[in-house]
Write a structure and sequence with these properties.
Radius of gyration of chain B: 18 Å
Number of helices of chain B: 4
Strand content of chain B: 35-45%
Number of strands of chain B: 16
Oligomer: heterodimer
Distance between the termini of chain B: 33 Å
Order of helices and strands of chain A: HHHHHHHHHHEHEHHHH
CATH superfamily of the largest domain in chain A: Cytochrome c-like domain
Number of helices of chain A: 15
Strand order of the largest sheet of chain A: 1-2
CATH topology of the largest domain in chain A: Cytochrome Bc1 Complex, Chain D, domain 2
Helix content of chain A: 25-40%
Chain lengths: ~350, ~220
Protein backbone atom coordinates (compact mmCIF):
# COMPACT_ATOMS: atom_id res chain seq x y z
CA UNK A 1 0.00 0.00 0.00
CA UNK A 2 2.79 2.33 0.98
CA UNK A 3 4.73 1.52 -2.19
CA UNK A 4 1.55 2.02 -4.25
CA UNK A 5 1.04 5.48 -2.74
CA UNK A 6 4.58 6.49 -3.58
CA UNK A 7 4.15 5.34 -7.20
CA UNK A 8 0.83 7.16 -7.44
CA UNK A 9 2.37 10.35 -6.04
CA UNK A 10 5.29 10.14 -8.44
CA UNK A 11 2.89 9.56 -11.33
CA UNK A 12 0.82 12.60 -10.35
CA UNK A 13 3.93 14.74 -10.03
CA UNK A 14 5.02 13.59 -13.50
CA UNK A 15 1.61 14.40 -14.99
CA UNK A 16 1.64 17.84 -13.34
CA UNK A 17 5.19 18.49 -14.57
CA UNK A 18 4.32 17.54 -18.14
CA UNK A 19 1.15 19.65 -18.03
CA UNK A 20 3.15 22.61 -16.77
CA UNK A 21 5.73 22.13 -19.50
CA UNK A 22 3.06 22.17 -22.22
CA UNK A 23 1.62 25.41 -20.83
CA UNK A 24 4.95 27.19 -20.81
CA UNK A 25 5.51 29.52 -23.75
CA UNK A 26 7.87 28.16 -26.35
CA UNK A 27 11.37 29.29 -25.48
CA UNK A 28 12.58 32.13 -27.68
CA UNK A 29 9.17 33.12 -28.93
CA UNK A 30 6.81 35.15 -26.82
CA UNK A 31 3.51 36.64 -27.83
CA UNK A 32 3.52 40.34 -26.97
CA UNK A 33 0.88 41.23 -24.42
CA UNK A 34 -2.50 41.94 -25.96
CA UNK A 35 -1.59 40.50 -29.35
CA UNK A 36 -3.59 37.74 -31.04
CA UNK A 37 -2.24 34.22 -31.19
CA UNK A 38 0.18 33.70 -34.06
CA UNK A 39 -0.82 31.36 -36.84
CA UNK A 40 2.55 29.68 -36.85
CA UNK A 41 3.24 28.19 -33.49
CA UNK A 42 6.13 25.87 -34.26
CA UNK A 43 4.04 22.71 -34.30
CA UNK A 44 6.28 20.01 -35.67
CA UNK A 45 9.14 22.46 -35.63
CA UNK A 46 9.97 22.90 -31.98
CA UNK A 47 12.04 25.92 -31.05
CA UNK A 48 15.66 25.40 -30.16
CA UNK A 49 18.29 28.07 -30.03
CA UNK A 50 20.56 25.95 -32.23
CA UNK A 51 17.86 25.71 -34.89
CA UNK A 52 17.30 29.46 -34.76
CA UNK A 53 21.02 30.02 -35.27
CA UNK A 54 21.12 27.54 -38.15
CA UNK A 55 18.20 29.35 -39.80
CA UNK A 56 19.96 32.65 -39.25
CA UNK A 57 23.14 31.33 -40.89
CA UNK A 58 21.18 30.01 -43.87
CA UNK A 59 19.34 33.31 -44.20
CA UNK A 60 22.59 35.23 -44.60
CA UNK A 61 24.41 32.67 -46.72
CA UNK A 62 24.49 33.00 -50.53
CA UNK A 63 25.06 29.24 -50.66
CA UNK A 64 21.36 28.85 -51.46
CA UNK A 65 21.66 30.73 -54.77
CA UNK A 66 22.80 29.12 -58.00
CA UNK A 67 26.01 31.11 -58.30
CA UNK A 68 26.65 31.69 -54.61
CA UNK A 69 26.04 35.43 -54.81
CA UNK A 70 22.56 36.11 -53.44
CA UNK A 71 21.27 35.35 -49.97
CA UNK A 72 17.87 36.02 -48.44
CA UNK A 73 19.54 38.97 -46.72
CA UNK A 74 20.43 40.54 -50.05
CA UNK A 75 16.88 41.84 -50.38
CA UNK A 76 15.83 41.58 -46.74
CA UNK A 77 18.13 43.84 -44.74
CA UNK A 78 17.71 43.72 -40.97
CA UNK A 79 18.26 47.45 -40.54
CA UNK A 80 15.27 48.26 -42.69
CA UNK A 81 12.79 45.83 -41.17
CA UNK A 82 14.08 43.14 -43.51
CA UNK A 83 12.86 45.12 -46.50
CA UNK A 84 15.24 46.50 -49.13
CA UNK A 85 15.66 50.18 -48.39
CA UNK A 86 15.71 52.43 -51.42
CA UNK A 87 15.31 49.57 -53.91
CA UNK A 88 12.02 49.63 -55.75
CA UNK A 89 12.23 46.06 -57.09
CA UNK A 90 13.97 42.98 -55.76
CA UNK A 91 17.38 42.01 -57.10
CA UNK A 92 18.62 38.58 -58.05
CA UNK A 93 21.59 36.76 -59.48
CA UNK A 94 23.29 38.13 -62.60
CA UNK A 95 21.82 41.51 -61.75
CA UNK A 96 18.30 40.39 -62.60
CA UNK A 97 15.47 42.60 -61.45
CA UNK A 98 12.22 41.21 -60.15
CA UNK A 99 8.73 42.58 -60.66
CA UNK A 100 7.88 43.40 -57.07
CA UNK A 101 9.28 45.22 -54.11
CA UNK A 102 10.92 43.01 -51.49
CA UNK A 103 8.43 43.03 -48.59
CA UNK A 104 9.42 43.61 -45.00
CA UNK A 105 9.75 40.50 -42.84
CA UNK A 106 8.13 41.56 -39.62
CA UNK A 107 5.92 39.51 -37.30
CA UNK A 108 5.82 36.74 -39.89
CA UNK A 109 4.37 34.22 -37.46
CA UNK A 110 1.03 36.06 -37.66
CA UNK A 111 0.90 35.97 -41.48
CA UNK A 112 -1.80 33.72 -42.93
CA UNK A 113 -0.10 33.90 -46.32
CA UNK A 114 2.97 35.31 -47.99
CA UNK A 115 4.10 37.15 -51.13
CA UNK A 116 2.39 40.29 -52.35
CA UNK A 117 -0.37 38.25 -53.98
CA UNK A 118 -0.82 35.91 -51.02
CA UNK A 119 0.08 32.95 -53.20
CA UNK A 120 1.93 31.06 -50.49
CA UNK A 121 0.15 29.95 -47.35
CA UNK A 122 2.93 28.55 -45.23
CA UNK A 123 5.96 30.23 -43.74
CA UNK A 124 8.10 27.12 -44.12
CA UNK A 125 7.31 26.57 -47.78
CA UNK A 126 7.56 30.29 -48.48
CA UNK A 127 11.36 30.18 -48.26
CA UNK A 128 11.44 27.80 -51.24
CA UNK A 129 10.05 30.52 -53.51
CA UNK A 130 13.02 32.89 -53.69
CA UNK A 131 15.45 29.97 -53.88
CA UNK A 132 13.71 28.68 -57.00
CA UNK A 133 12.71 32.00 -58.55
CA UNK A 134 14.50 32.76 -61.82
CA UNK A 135 14.96 36.44 -60.95
CA UNK A 136 16.07 35.82 -57.38
CA UNK A 137 18.31 32.88 -56.43
CA UNK A 138 17.59 30.74 -59.51
CA UNK A 139 18.50 27.44 -57.87
CA UNK A 140 16.68 24.20 -57.31
CA UNK A 141 16.01 22.66 -53.95
CA UNK A 142 17.75 19.34 -54.57
CA UNK A 143 20.92 21.11 -55.63
CA UNK A 144 20.69 23.39 -52.60
CA UNK A 145 20.43 20.39 -50.29
CA UNK A 146 23.28 18.64 -52.10
CA UNK A 147 25.46 21.71 -51.72
CA UNK A 148 24.69 21.98 -48.02
CA UNK A 149 25.34 18.27 -47.56
CA UNK A 150 28.77 18.54 -49.13
CA UNK A 151 29.70 21.40 -46.83
CA UNK A 152 31.31 19.98 -43.69
CA UNK A 153 30.21 22.86 -41.46
CA UNK A 154 26.58 22.60 -42.54
CA UNK A 155 26.63 18.80 -42.32
CA UNK A 156 27.77 19.09 -38.70
CA UNK A 157 25.30 21.86 -37.88
CA UNK A 158 22.31 19.99 -39.29
CA UNK A 159 23.39 16.87 -37.41
CA UNK A 160 23.61 18.86 -34.19
CA UNK A 161 20.24 20.56 -34.69
CA UNK A 162 18.20 17.71 -36.16
CA UNK A 163 19.99 14.73 -34.65
CA UNK A 164 20.32 12.91 -37.96
CA UNK A 165 22.90 12.87 -40.70
CA UNK A 166 20.66 13.55 -43.66
CA UNK A 167 19.94 17.12 -44.75
CA UNK A 168 16.54 17.38 -46.37
CA UNK A 169 14.52 20.17 -47.98
CA UNK A 170 12.10 20.01 -45.07
CA UNK A 171 14.81 20.45 -42.47
CA UNK A 172 16.32 23.29 -44.47
CA UNK A 173 13.07 25.25 -44.79
CA UNK A 174 12.04 24.56 -41.21
CA UNK A 175 15.37 25.93 -40.03
CA UNK A 176 14.86 29.05 -42.13
CA UNK A 177 11.31 29.41 -40.79
CA UNK A 178 12.66 29.19 -37.25
CA UNK A 179 14.60 32.37 -37.93
CA UNK A 180 11.98 34.30 -39.88
CA UNK A 181 9.10 33.38 -37.56
CA UNK A 182 11.05 34.80 -34.65
CA UNK A 183 11.41 38.27 -36.20
CA UNK A 184 9.03 39.96 -33.81
CA UNK A 185 8.80 43.74 -33.62
CA UNK A 186 6.83 44.99 -30.62
CA UNK A 187 8.91 47.69 -28.97
CA UNK A 188 8.15 50.84 -30.90
CA UNK A 189 7.16 54.10 -29.23
CA UNK A 190 3.58 53.20 -30.13
CA UNK A 191 3.89 49.91 -28.23
CA UNK A 192 5.41 51.64 -25.22
CA UNK A 193 2.69 54.25 -25.17
CA UNK A 194 0.04 51.53 -25.43
CA UNK A 195 1.69 49.66 -22.57
CA UNK A 196 1.74 52.91 -20.60
CA UNK A 197 5.47 52.61 -20.00
CA UNK A 198 6.93 55.44 -17.95
CA UNK A 199 8.41 58.26 -20.01
CA UNK A 200 6.54 57.48 -23.23
CA UNK A 201 3.69 59.50 -24.66
CA UNK A 202 2.58 60.84 -28.02
CA UNK A 203 3.16 64.45 -29.00
CA UNK A 204 0.09 66.49 -29.90
CA UNK A 205 0.80 65.90 -33.59
CA UNK A 206 1.28 62.15 -33.12
CA UNK A 207 -1.89 61.98 -31.04
CA UNK A 208 -3.82 63.76 -33.77
CA UNK A 209 -2.24 61.48 -36.37
CA UNK A 210 -3.26 58.43 -34.34
CA UNK A 211 -6.84 59.67 -34.12
CA UNK A 212 -6.96 60.21 -37.89
CA UNK A 213 -5.26 56.90 -38.51
CA UNK A 214 -7.83 54.97 -36.51
CA UNK A 215 -10.60 56.66 -38.43
CA UNK A 216 -9.19 56.54 -41.97
CA UNK A 217 -6.58 53.79 -42.21
CA UNK A 218 -7.14 51.20 -39.49
CA UNK A 219 -9.82 49.22 -41.29
CA UNK A 220 -7.03 47.70 -43.39
CA UNK A 221 -3.98 48.49 -41.23
CA UNK A 222 -5.45 47.03 -38.08
CA UNK A 223 -3.71 47.31 -34.73
CA UNK A 224 -1.59 45.89 -33.21
CA UNK A 225 -0.06 44.25 -36.30
CA UNK A 226 -1.04 47.17 -38.52
CA UNK A 227 -2.44 44.94 -41.22
CA UNK A 228 -5.58 42.86 -41.54
CA UNK A 229 -3.66 40.50 -43.86
CA UNK A 230 -6.40 40.85 -46.48
CA UNK A 231 -5.85 41.28 -50.20
CA UNK A 232 -6.99 44.70 -51.41
CA UNK A 233 -6.86 46.82 -54.53
CA UNK A 234 -5.57 50.26 -53.61
CA UNK A 235 -6.31 52.03 -56.88
CA UNK A 236 -2.76 52.29 -58.19
CA UNK A 237 -2.69 52.37 -61.98
CA UNK A 238 -0.90 49.36 -63.41
CA UNK A 239 2.71 49.97 -64.34
CA UNK A 240 2.74 49.38 -68.13
CA UNK A 241 6.26 47.93 -67.99
CA UNK A 242 5.68 45.46 -65.16
CA UNK A 243 2.11 44.55 -66.16
CA UNK A 244 1.41 43.17 -62.71
CA UNK A 245 -2.20 42.04 -62.25
CA UNK A 246 -1.65 41.03 -58.63
CA UNK A 247 -3.56 38.08 -57.21
CA UNK A 248 -5.24 37.45 -60.57
CA UNK A 249 -1.96 36.17 -62.01
CA UNK A 250 -2.04 33.40 -59.43
CA UNK A 251 -5.76 32.69 -59.25
CA UNK A 252 -6.48 33.40 -62.93
CA UNK A 253 -9.68 35.04 -61.76
CA UNK A 254 -10.68 38.45 -63.13
CA UNK A 255 -12.20 39.50 -59.82
CA UNK A 256 -8.77 39.20 -58.21
CA UNK A 257 -7.28 41.82 -60.51
CA UNK A 258 -4.88 44.19 -58.77
CA UNK A 259 -5.36 42.58 -55.38
CA UNK A 260 -2.24 42.81 -53.25
CA UNK A 261 -1.65 41.98 -49.64
CA UNK A 262 -2.09 44.80 -47.13
CA UNK A 263 1.41 45.25 -45.72
CA UNK A 264 2.20 45.89 -42.08
CA UNK A 265 3.07 49.50 -41.28
CA UNK A 266 5.45 48.60 -38.50
CA UNK A 267 8.86 50.20 -39.11
CA UNK A 268 7.37 51.92 -42.16
CA UNK A 269 9.88 54.75 -41.73
CA UNK A 270 12.60 52.41 -42.97
CA UNK A 271 10.84 50.08 -45.38
CA UNK A 272 10.74 52.51 -48.30
CA UNK A 273 10.14 52.55 -51.20
CA UNK A 274 6.47 51.71 -50.83
CA UNK A 275 3.72 49.73 -52.57
CA UNK A 276 4.03 46.37 -54.32
CA UNK A 277 6.23 47.83 -57.05
CA UNK A 278 8.13 50.31 -54.90
CA UNK A 279 6.88 53.24 -56.94
CA UNK A 280 6.67 55.69 -54.04
CA UNK A 281 9.86 56.75 -52.33
CA UNK A 282 8.27 58.81 -49.59
CA UNK A 283 5.35 58.33 -47.23
CA UNK A 284 3.94 61.66 -48.33
CA UNK A 285 3.62 60.23 -51.85
CA UNK A 286 1.60 57.32 -50.46
CA UNK A 287 -0.68 59.60 -48.44
CA UNK A 288 -1.03 61.86 -51.45
CA UNK A 289 -2.12 58.89 -53.57
CA UNK A 290 -4.91 58.07 -51.14
CA UNK A 291 -5.89 61.73 -50.80
CA UNK A 292 -6.41 62.01 -54.55
CA UNK A 293 -7.95 58.63 -55.15
CA UNK A 294 -10.86 58.53 -57.57
CA UNK A 295 -13.59 56.42 -55.93
CA UNK A 296 -14.68 55.27 -59.39
CA UNK A 297 -11.34 53.56 -60.04
CA UNK A 298 -11.84 50.04 -61.42
CA UNK A 299 -11.42 47.21 -58.91
CA UNK A 300 -10.95 49.65 -56.02
CA UNK A 301 -11.54 47.98 -52.67
CA UNK A 302 -14.65 49.16 -50.86
CA UNK A 303 -12.77 50.62 -47.89
CA UNK A 304 -11.07 53.11 -50.21
CA UNK A 305 -14.21 54.24 -51.98
CA UNK A 306 -15.23 56.27 -48.98
CA UNK A 307 -11.78 57.43 -47.85
CA UNK A 308 -11.64 61.03 -46.73
CA UNK A 309 -9.53 63.45 -48.71
CA UNK A 310 -7.02 64.29 -46.06
CA UNK A 311 -5.53 67.78 -45.99
CA UNK A 312 -1.81 68.33 -46.20
CA UNK A 313 -1.59 68.94 -42.45
CA UNK A 314 -3.64 65.85 -41.67
CA UNK A 315 -1.31 63.80 -43.83
CA UNK A 316 1.67 65.18 -41.94
CA UNK A 317 0.02 64.25 -38.65
CA UNK A 318 -0.55 60.69 -39.83
CA UNK A 319 3.06 60.42 -40.95
CA UNK A 320 4.17 61.71 -37.53
CA UNK A 321 2.14 58.92 -35.97
CA UNK A 322 3.50 56.31 -38.39
CA UNK A 323 7.02 57.21 -37.30
CA UNK A 324 6.09 56.06 -33.80
CA UNK A 325 5.91 52.53 -35.25
CA UNK A 326 9.68 52.49 -35.64
CA UNK A 327 11.17 49.85 -33.38
CA UNK A 328 14.91 50.43 -33.14
CA UNK A 329 15.33 47.56 -30.71
CA UNK A 330 14.14 45.35 -33.54
CA UNK A 331 15.97 47.07 -36.39
CA UNK A 332 19.32 47.09 -34.62
CA UNK A 333 18.97 43.82 -32.72
CA UNK A 334 22.34 42.03 -33.11
CA UNK A 335 20.51 38.71 -32.76
CA UNK A 336 18.90 39.30 -36.13
CA UNK A 337 22.02 40.50 -37.92
CA UNK A 338 24.63 38.64 -39.91
CA UNK A 339 26.27 36.08 -37.57
CA UNK A 340 29.85 37.36 -37.57
CA UNK B 1 57.14 95.26 -56.88
CA UNK B 2 58.88 91.94 -56.26
CA UNK B 3 57.49 91.96 -52.75
CA UNK B 4 54.01 92.56 -54.09
CA UNK B 5 54.32 89.56 -56.41
CA UNK B 6 55.68 87.47 -53.58
CA UNK B 7 52.77 88.47 -51.34
CA UNK B 8 50.29 87.73 -54.10
CA UNK B 9 51.96 84.37 -54.72
CA UNK B 10 51.68 83.49 -51.03
CA UNK B 11 48.03 84.52 -50.86
CA UNK B 12 47.15 82.53 -53.97
CA UNK B 13 49.19 79.44 -53.27
CA UNK B 14 49.05 79.11 -49.48
CA UNK B 15 45.75 79.30 -47.71
CA UNK B 16 44.05 77.70 -44.80
CA UNK B 17 41.52 75.03 -45.48
CA UNK B 18 38.58 74.79 -43.20
CA UNK B 19 36.10 73.23 -45.53
CA UNK B 20 35.81 71.98 -49.05
CA UNK B 21 32.51 72.38 -50.79
CA UNK B 22 31.40 70.12 -53.62
CA UNK B 23 29.80 71.33 -56.77
CA UNK B 24 28.16 69.26 -59.50
CA UNK B 25 28.12 70.05 -63.17
CA UNK B 26 26.91 68.42 -66.35
CA UNK B 27 26.98 69.66 -69.90
CA UNK B 28 28.63 72.96 -68.91
CA UNK B 29 26.06 73.93 -66.32
CA UNK B 30 25.09 73.15 -62.77
CA UNK B 31 23.61 69.67 -62.43
CA UNK B 32 19.87 69.77 -61.86
CA UNK B 33 18.23 66.54 -60.84
CA UNK B 34 14.94 65.64 -62.48
CA UNK B 35 15.68 67.58 -65.66
CA UNK B 36 16.40 66.13 -69.07
CA UNK B 37 19.73 67.01 -70.61
CA UNK B 38 20.67 66.65 -74.25
CA UNK B 39 24.27 66.65 -75.35
CA UNK B 40 25.24 68.54 -78.50
CA UNK B 41 22.69 67.82 -81.20
CA UNK B 42 22.16 64.30 -80.11
CA UNK B 43 18.54 63.14 -79.88
CA UNK B 44 19.27 61.05 -76.82
CA UNK B 45 18.70 62.54 -73.40
CA UNK B 46 19.68 61.77 -69.85
CA UNK B 47 17.95 62.76 -66.65
CA UNK B 48 19.73 62.31 -63.34
CA UNK B 49 17.31 61.81 -60.47
CA UNK B 50 19.64 60.61 -57.81
CA UNK B 51 23.37 60.61 -57.27
CA UNK B 52 24.74 59.43 -53.95
CA UNK B 53 28.26 58.31 -53.30
CA UNK B 54 30.74 57.75 -50.54
CA UNK B 55 33.89 59.77 -50.41
CA UNK B 56 36.77 58.77 -48.19
CA UNK B 57 39.67 61.02 -47.32
CA UNK B 58 42.08 62.06 -44.60
CA UNK B 59 40.73 64.27 -41.82
CA UNK B 60 43.99 66.22 -41.86
CA UNK B 61 44.14 68.37 -44.90
CA UNK B 62 47.75 68.80 -45.85
CA UNK B 63 50.15 69.00 -48.75
CA UNK B 64 51.37 65.50 -48.26
CA UNK B 65 49.85 62.92 -50.45
CA UNK B 66 47.90 60.61 -48.21
CA UNK B 67 46.69 57.38 -49.72
CA UNK B 68 44.13 56.59 -47.12
CA UNK B 69 41.67 58.35 -44.93
CA UNK B 70 39.45 57.76 -42.00
CA UNK B 71 36.70 60.18 -42.93
CA UNK B 72 33.80 58.53 -44.72
CA UNK B 73 31.24 60.97 -45.96
CA UNK B 74 28.10 60.34 -47.97
CA UNK B 75 27.34 62.92 -50.63
CA UNK B 76 23.78 63.19 -51.84
CA UNK B 77 23.23 65.51 -54.77
CA UNK B 78 19.67 66.07 -53.60
CA UNK B 79 20.82 67.23 -50.16
CA UNK B 80 23.05 70.30 -50.28
CA UNK B 81 23.90 69.89 -46.60
CA UNK B 82 26.08 66.95 -47.63
CA UNK B 83 28.13 69.10 -50.02
CA UNK B 84 30.47 70.27 -47.25
CA UNK B 85 33.31 67.89 -46.59
CA UNK B 86 34.08 67.87 -42.90
CA UNK B 87 37.66 67.99 -41.60
CA UNK B 88 38.70 67.43 -38.03
CA UNK B 89 41.56 69.91 -38.32
CA UNK B 90 42.16 72.98 -40.40
CA UNK B 91 45.40 72.73 -42.24
CA UNK B 92 47.71 75.02 -44.09
CA UNK B 93 47.73 74.07 -47.69
CA UNK B 94 49.84 75.25 -50.50
CA UNK B 95 48.99 73.33 -53.62
CA UNK B 96 45.26 72.92 -54.08
CA UNK B 97 45.46 69.22 -54.98
CA UNK B 98 43.13 66.98 -53.07
CA UNK B 99 43.32 63.21 -52.76
CA UNK B 100 40.23 61.22 -51.99
CA UNK B 101 38.48 57.99 -52.85
CA UNK B 102 35.07 57.32 -54.22
CA UNK B 103 33.87 54.34 -52.24
CA UNK B 104 34.74 52.73 -48.94
CA UNK B 105 37.78 50.59 -48.20
CA UNK B 106 37.32 46.93 -47.33
CA UNK B 107 38.40 47.27 -43.70
CA UNK B 108 35.83 49.99 -42.99
CA UNK B 109 33.24 47.88 -44.78
CA UNK B 110 33.93 44.79 -42.72
CA UNK B 111 34.28 46.65 -39.42
CA UNK B 112 31.31 48.94 -39.91
CA UNK B 113 29.36 49.89 -36.83
CA UNK B 114 26.37 50.73 -39.03
CA UNK B 115 26.23 54.30 -37.79
CA UNK B 116 26.80 57.81 -39.14
CA UNK B 117 27.39 57.81 -42.89
CA UNK B 118 27.39 54.02 -42.81
CA UNK B 119 23.91 53.69 -41.33
CA UNK B 120 22.13 51.17 -43.56
CA UNK B 121 18.93 53.19 -43.38
CA UNK B 122 20.60 55.66 -45.77
CA UNK B 123 19.94 53.17 -48.52
CA UNK B 124 23.51 52.35 -49.44
CA UNK B 125 23.94 49.01 -47.69
CA UNK B 126 23.69 45.73 -49.57
CA UNK B 127 24.62 42.79 -47.40
CA UNK B 128 27.46 41.42 -45.36
CA UNK B 129 29.16 39.73 -48.33
CA UNK B 130 28.74 42.61 -50.77
CA UNK B 131 29.10 45.57 -48.42
CA UNK B 132 27.98 49.04 -49.38
CA UNK B 133 26.97 50.60 -52.64
CA UNK B 134 29.82 53.02 -53.29
CA UNK B 135 28.07 55.09 -55.88
CA UNK B 136 24.41 55.14 -56.77
CA UNK B 137 23.34 56.87 -59.98
CA UNK B 138 19.69 56.70 -60.93
CA UNK B 139 17.58 58.44 -63.49
CA UNK B 140 16.04 58.09 -66.90
CA UNK B 141 17.28 58.05 -70.46
CA UNK B 142 15.57 57.30 -73.73
CA UNK B 143 18.47 54.96 -74.38
CA UNK B 144 17.30 52.64 -71.61
CA UNK B 145 14.70 50.01 -72.44
CA UNK B 146 13.88 49.45 -68.78
CA UNK B 147 10.64 50.44 -67.05
CA UNK B 148 9.92 54.16 -67.59
CA UNK B 149 13.29 54.43 -69.36
CA UNK B 150 14.95 54.07 -65.98
CA UNK B 151 18.55 53.33 -65.27
CA UNK B 152 19.91 52.31 -61.89
CA UNK B 153 23.60 51.98 -61.39
CA UNK B 154 24.47 50.66 -57.96
CA UNK B 155 28.23 50.40 -58.03
CA UNK B 156 29.88 48.58 -55.16
CA UNK B 157 31.95 45.63 -54.08
CA UNK B 158 34.92 45.39 -51.77
CA UNK B 159 36.49 41.99 -52.38
CA UNK B 160 39.75 41.99 -54.33
CA UNK B 161 38.65 41.44 -57.93
CA UNK B 162 35.32 43.19 -57.45
CA UNK B 163 36.65 46.15 -55.53
CA UNK B 164 35.13 49.37 -56.83
CA UNK B 165 36.75 51.87 -54.53
CA UNK B 166 38.95 54.21 -56.54
CA UNK B 167 41.46 56.76 -55.26
CA UNK B 168 41.51 59.99 -57.20
CA UNK B 169 43.38 63.26 -57.18
CA UNK B 170 42.04 66.53 -58.44
CA UNK B 171 42.85 70.18 -58.41
CA UNK B 172 40.50 72.21 -56.27
CA UNK B 173 38.96 75.27 -57.82
CA UNK B 174 39.25 78.37 -55.69
CA UNK B 175 36.08 80.46 -55.80
CA UNK B 176 35.95 83.61 -53.65
CA UNK B 177 38.94 82.29 -51.76
CA UNK B 178 37.20 79.05 -50.94
CA UNK B 179 38.12 75.66 -52.34
CA UNK B 180 35.55 73.83 -54.42
CA UNK B 181 35.65 70.20 -55.42
CA UNK B 182 34.03 70.03 -58.83
CA UNK B 183 32.35 66.87 -60.02
CA UNK B 184 31.57 67.04 -63.72
CA UNK B 185 29.34 64.20 -64.90
CA UNK B 186 29.62 64.92 -68.61
CA UNK B 187 32.52 62.66 -69.55
CA UNK B 188 31.44 60.04 -67.04
CA UNK B 189 27.93 59.56 -68.44
CA UNK B 190 29.01 59.87 -72.07
CA UNK B 191 32.09 57.68 -72.01
CA UNK B 192 31.72 55.30 -69.07
CA UNK B 193 28.04 54.51 -68.70
CA UNK B 194 26.31 52.44 -71.35
CA UNK B 195 22.62 53.22 -70.93
CA UNK B 196 21.63 50.87 -73.72
CA UNK B 197 23.59 47.79 -72.78
CA UNK B 198 23.79 48.04 -69.01
CA UNK B 199 21.09 50.34 -67.65
CA UNK B 200 20.77 48.23 -64.50
CA UNK B 201 23.79 47.28 -62.45
CA UNK B 202 22.83 46.00 -59.04
CA UNK B 203 25.59 43.66 -57.92
CA UNK B 204 29.36 43.63 -57.65
CA UNK B 205 31.09 42.20 -60.70
CA UNK B 206 32.76 43.04 -63.95
CA UNK B 207 30.20 45.64 -65.05
CA UNK B 208 30.49 47.49 -61.75
CA UNK B 209 34.27 47.40 -61.95
CA UNK B 210 34.15 48.87 -65.46
CA UNK B 211 32.06 51.77 -64.19
CA UNK B 212 34.39 52.26 -61.24
CA UNK B 213 37.31 52.41 -63.64
CA UNK B 214 35.67 55.53 -65.03
CA UNK B 215 35.25 57.32 -61.70
CA UNK B 216 38.29 59.44 -62.54
CA UNK B 217 36.26 61.07 -65.30
CA UNK B 218 34.07 62.67 -62.65
CA UNK B 219 36.81 65.09 -61.73
CA UNK B 220 39.33 67.14 -63.63
CA UNK B 221 42.93 65.96 -63.24
Amino acid sequence: MKVGSIFLSLFLILVLFLSFQSLKPKMGFEIPKGWPKPLYYFDGNEYTEEKFQLGRKLFYDPILSRDNTISCATCHVSFSGFAHTDHSLSHGIDGRIGRRNAPALINMAWNPYFNWDGSMGNIERQSMEPIRHHDEMDFNLDSAVARLSSDKKYAALFREVWGVDQITVRRMIQSLAMFTANLVSSNSIYDKVMRKEAGYSFTTQQENGYRLFKKECASCHKEPLFTNYKLKSNGLPMDPFLKDYGRAEFSESYKDSFLFKVPTLRNIEFTFPYMHDGRFKKLKDVLNHYANLDPKTNHLSKELKKIKKLSSNEQKDIIAFLYTLTDKEFLYNPRYQFPR
Amino acid sequence: MKLLFLAAFIVVSFYTISQITCRFEMNDSTLKTGEKVQFNNDTSWIQIDELKFYIQYSPFFSDEKINGGSVIHLIDVNDSLTYQLPFTEDGAHSNSMFQFAIGIDSVSTMQTQFSGALDPSLGMYWAWNTGYIHLKLEGKSNLSIQRNNEFQLHIGGYSLKNNTQRWLETKLKIVDGKPKLIFDLTKFVLETVNFQKSPMIMIPGIEAVQIANGFHKLVHP
